[in-house]
Q: What sequence folds into this?
């Protein structure tokens, strides 16, 4: 059994990369592998928006990540600088920036690229989507 | 420590791929991973001299490539075929670079632990 770190660079809608990342993560867990963390970078940070609101018969990838994380105690981490540039903020950052709204909340946490790199060191394999 | 190769496949400025790849490369080097950069396809355009990205509202992250030796990122590889595709010669480029053919690139990618493509 192996330990994976998953990097998601693909955005939440209009690109299949994040969906493949989600399915890979599910399959790896089912097969008994462990997932050190899922790290959202580049446009992947859009997956962390709790304000995604697709039509009721469409797939909500944010919700799917949140459910998977809650079921399996999966760590979901945003690259904070990639997120802030794209308007993805936690309550703490919204306060710091004097902004009225925020869209990133538990279980997604804000972190640094260091968490991706330390994850690469610890995990057997990095898989990027 | 693990070896990481960061591959630049997109041109600079038109997207954030190159800038975010460089951020990751420097961060990984500061965590003491052995980092190499590979420029191929449109990514070779990062290496052209005299870029002025401020004119299109972009930060000049190309200047930051000059800081790489301070982060101990010594290996910068360029795909020979991509240079030819874009009509570039070594004289047009910024850095001390190793120009490699496909077989040598394959050998390099096999020699590292992880490859990230931007």
A:
């Amino acid at each position: 059994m192996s330990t994976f770190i998953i990097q998601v660079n693909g955005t939440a809608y209009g690109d299949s990369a994040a969906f493949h990342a989600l399915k890979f993560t599910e399959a790896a867990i089912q097969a008994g592998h462990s997932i050190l963390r899922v790290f959202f970078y580049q446009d992947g940070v859009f997956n962390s928006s709790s304000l995604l609101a697709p039509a009721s018969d469409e797939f909500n990838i944010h919700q799917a990540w949140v459910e998977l994380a809650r079921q399996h105690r999966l760590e979901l981490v945003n690259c904070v600088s990639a997120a802030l540039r794209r308007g993805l903020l936690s309550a703490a950052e919204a306060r710091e920036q004097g902004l009225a709204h925020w869209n990133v909340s538990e279980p997604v946490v804000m972190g640094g690229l260091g968490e991706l790199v330390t994850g690469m060191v610890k995990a057997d394999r990095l898989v990027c989507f | 420590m693990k070896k990481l190769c960061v591959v630049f496949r997109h041109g600079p400025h038109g997207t954030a791929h190159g800038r975010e790849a460089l951020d990751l490369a420097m961060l990984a080097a500061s965590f003491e991973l052995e980092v190499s950069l590979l420029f191929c396809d449109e990514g070779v355009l990062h290496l052209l001299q005299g870029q002025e990205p401020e004119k299109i509202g972009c930060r000049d992250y190309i200047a930051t490539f000059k800081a790489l030796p301070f982060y101990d990122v010594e290996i910068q590889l360029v795909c020979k075929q991509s240079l030819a595709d874009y009509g570039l010669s070594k004289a047009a480029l910024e850095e001390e670079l190793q120009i490699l053919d496909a077989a040598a690139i394959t050998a390099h990618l096999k020699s590292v632990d992880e490859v990230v493509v931007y």
Notes: The CA atoms of residues 37 and 75 of chain A lie 5 Å apart. The first helix of chain A runs from residue 17 to 30. The mean pLDDT of chain A is 97. Strands of chain A lie at 3-8, 34-40, 76-79, 108-111, 125-128.
